[in-house]
Amino acid sequence: MSAGLPEGALAVLPRGARDLLPGAARRRRALTEALLAGFDRWGYDPVVTPAIEYFAVFGRWLAERERQRCVRFIEAGSGELVTLRSDITPQIARLAEQQLRERLAAGEAVRLCYAADVVRLSEGTREQAERHQVGVELLGDDAPEADAELILLADEALRAAGVTAATIEVADVGIARGVFERLPSCDVEALHGLLARKDAGGVARFAAGLALGEAPRRWLGLLCELFGAPGILGHVPADIRARWPWLAERLARLEATLAVVEARAPELHARLVVDLGEVRGFDYYTGLRLRAWAPGSARPLVVGGRYAGGAGFAVELDALEASLDADAVTTATRAGGVMIAIQSREPRARALAAGRAGVERAAGRRAWVQVGLSLETAQAAAAEADALVYFGADERAEIWSQRQPGAWRRAEESGA
């Protein structure tokens, strides 16, 4: 064991990491492929970003708290500070600046999608350090219709993955931040926490300790109350809209976005939750904030929003899988295929099994070989297969099939 590793470290994983066994790995691949296929139908082209970046790419986008969560190291040879990918959006922004500038300058909206892992130092014992995401980025279109497209696409993606009735939260982070900018110096992080908990009493006490005018004091209270169905936007007092033109503009954009969603997907519109007090998430968000929730996961299944130059969201695969597990939804069954098993370990027997596997593969079927197994052991090992071809001591082929796991039925017997 390496010096410095705790006792038994080779038997465990670092905090925030986990393995996926074959069944779970196949399901993840199926979910990833389903999501990417859905994004492709909407015109999102795939890109792959590197697992490592110069830290400066993330330093331009992330707040200090998130910078500290980057896994950093010095690049051999150059001495430059390098980091493992902790977020996709800064990489997409770098890619756009380097390679998509002409398309964007010509007025083209660029749609990109990806499947990638991100690594962030975990802040707690239960938080995952490695996250697996499939997402989209829409660059060069800052209209309300573009925000609506992301909301519609997020819902379609979740339905394609098997989540049929997710709760989708939408917000404009510029609303709460605009209020904060007009407050006297105070503990904004504490206010964030109160709003996140919808602690109206706590917010009132917080406001009482500040020298505020009537409008800011009223609006701080309303940030806790204006949470619910899209119709909640109609509850914003007209006098506050009139007094704060910047707020009226933000609200009008959000209303325009929701109107597009309602026109195209009334059922989805009825499931939306609007939260005007939402301030959580990366500091680079400038407008729309999008999250989706479903039973079974303590974390959102979708996270995203609008930032300078574009907008996007990521489907969090770990949270998605937790929700599917809680709902007893199976999105991937047995791997299928044909296992070729032979009792003997002799070279001639191995060649016989390999030849049969080659025939199966040539016919387009998945096939693999196991040697030195009894029939009973071979059937247990072939739990993922649809069929088993077993060569016993006489090297005659017995063909078995299973429609349900463990329910083997002999189909035929033929000479080798």
Structural class assignment: alpha+beta
Terminal residue distance: 49 Å
Biggest sheet, in brief? 9 strands, mixed
Estimated radius of gyration: 27 Å
How much helix, percentage-wise, in residues? Answer: 40-55%
Output the strand order for the largest sheet.
1-5-6-12-11-10-7-9-8
Dominant shape? elongated
The strand count comes to 17
- Strand composition percent: 15-25%
Distinct helical segment count: 16
Uncertain residue segments:
none
On the 0 to 100 scale, the average pLDDT is: 89
Structural write-up:
With 416 residues, the protein is of the alpha+beta class. Helix content is 40%, strand content 23%. The chain has helices at 22-41, 55-59, 64-67, 89-99, 101-105, 144-161, 173-181, 188-196, 200-208, 214-225, 238-243, 245-264, 266-271, 317-326, 347-362, 375-381; strands at residues 45-46, 52-54, 72-74, 81-84, 110-119, 130-139, 167-172, 227-228, 272-275, 285-293, 302-307, 310-316, 338-342, 367-371, 387-391, 397-402, 408-414. The strands form 3 sheets. The protein has a 9-stranded mixed β-sheet, sandwiched between helices. A 5-stranded mixed β-sheet has the order 14-13-15-16-17, with helices on both faces. Strands 2-4-3 form a 3-stranded antiparallel β-sheet. Strand 16 and strand 17 (408-414) form a beta hairpin. Helix 1 (22-41) packs antiparallel against helix 6 (144-161), helix 6 crosses helix 12 and helix 9 (200-208) runs antiparallel to helix 10. The longest helix has 20 residues, at 22-41. It is elongated. The two termini are 49 Å apart. The mean pLDDT is 89.
